[in-house]
Amino acid sequence: MARIISLVESQIPSDLAPDEKRQTLEKAVLAKIDSASSCLKLKLAPLTKAYMNQREENEMEELLYNMAVPQISRKEKSRIYGLMFSRLLDDPDCVSFATGNPQMLGNLAMVDVWFLTFFVFVTCRRVRGDNLLQLCCSGISTCGKSTILEAVIRSTAHQLLSSSSQSGGDAGVGR
């Protein structure tokens, strides 16, 4: 069967799209087997399709690359995260801060209020009347918003909503 597939494959035009090439190859191989014997085609058709699918999977796996990522200690990850967070907040080209209610900030700088609000969202439960301002993060693409900020809030929110531990949770989704 492998010889028949190789022989037929060499006769298929190379300018076809991959899907067209696969379909043409399958039809041509089955036609070649049918020309030898229709009974043989009935018995070999499922095996031929399975063989061709396996061959295609093997070719696709060979295209993948396994990359070994060096492991970083938790202390080093924290240090890198701190650097990235500081660079993001201190970069006037990527980040700016604004408020619709400056009186509520008092004498605090807007970046400090944002920073405090971010960590309150990440570490504390909200209660009615906490006067916590809405937190918004928008900016140019690829400046690090999702990696540095959104992932942390999403992870913490998930833990608070799904956890039933003593340390913070059992809020329950929809309660």
Q: Which key features would you list for this structure?
A:
175 residues; mainly alpha; 2 domains; 59% helix; 0% strand
Report on the structure:
- The chain is 59% helix and 0% strand.
- With 175 residues, it is an all-alpha fold.
- The chain has helices at residues 2-11, 18-36, 38-63, 74-89, 110-123, 145-162.
- α1 (2-11) crosses α2, α2 packs antiparallel against α3 and α5 (110-123) runs parallel beside α6.
- The protein has two domains: 2-63, no CATH class; 74-162, no CATH class.
Q: What value does the average pLDDT take?
A: 76
Tally of separate helices:
6
The amount of helix comes to 55-70%
Q: CA-to-CA gap between the ends? A: 62 Å
Task: Give me the Rg, rounded.
Answer: 30 Å
What fraction strand? under 5%
One letter per element, helices H and strands E, the order comes to HHHHHH
Given as residue ranges, the uncertain stretches (5+ residues, pLDDT < 50) are 165-175
Shape: rod-shaped
- Coarse structural class: mainly alpha
